[in-house]
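Figure 2 data, in text form.
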Amino acid sequence: MNNAVVLHSIIRRNQKFIEKTVSGLAHNKSLLQLPGESNCMNWVLGHIAVYRDSMLACNNIAPLLTEEQRMPYCYGSQPITPNTSSFCVELSVLLNRLNDSYHAVSEWLSSDPNNMLDAPPKYIDLHPDYGPTIVENLGFLCWHEANHVGELHALGELAGIQI
């Protein structure tokens, strides 16, 4: 099994869990927070969308989120709460971006007959710990996404979604 198949499998499973978790979810329910310093579902989904744009950049595909849409969800951004919800992107928009980015990454990974993933990334400037090749960058990004997808289970329960 080549790297593209493995990465595609991870992203496909993440996407299916995202879709299952947000099915029928209203925007206001995506703003609910667990006690402590945790993030709401809206932030988690927006953060995943930001990093999906990084996946697209690995193949020189333009980001789907605008700079303004990215700001509330970048690493180190402030938590989104019902009181600060005016700074977040509407849930339906985030879900559309996640769906579109999934299809773009999926198409790319499904059509990689020459396994170009071993090439160094030319068009992005990601953290050096991500690795020197596209596949290593994508591997980190898949792990990062799966880590945040794991947060959706408790947030879905909080929002009353049966998962």
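Caption note: The mean pLDDT is 88.
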